[in-house]
Amino acid sequence: MASEEPPEAGGRFDEVADAAARAFRLLPAAPRDLPTPGATGQHRPHRISTDPDNVERDLVKLVLTLVELLRQLMERQALHRVDQGDLTEEQEERLGATLLVLHDRMNDLCAQHGLTMDDLNLDLGPLGTLLPPPE
Prior knowledge:
The chain is mostly helical.
């Protein structure tokens, strides 16, 4: 006598299979899956530039992006603590002044390296942008 799955289990497996198929469609194509240039007249995929000037600028951009992400997370945590009433008035003032100085310093560093704050907001494809939009 063959064992059969309960009807709801088959439906659940179908849901999981559909979710996995959607997730795999979001992944970039493997090199073997890309069309051969010239075969269909399509252009080659974008390649990483190995120009030393671009590499240095991109590295600075990445570091500043991470610092800006951390700055925004600290700012949100500070606002949460202020809302909770965990800080004294003096601590709130000091924290606010520190966050303003950090924000100004980030703008200075961006200007020094020819970047804007918008340049730091990486596009993560279907996930959206790394940094939240300015409020």
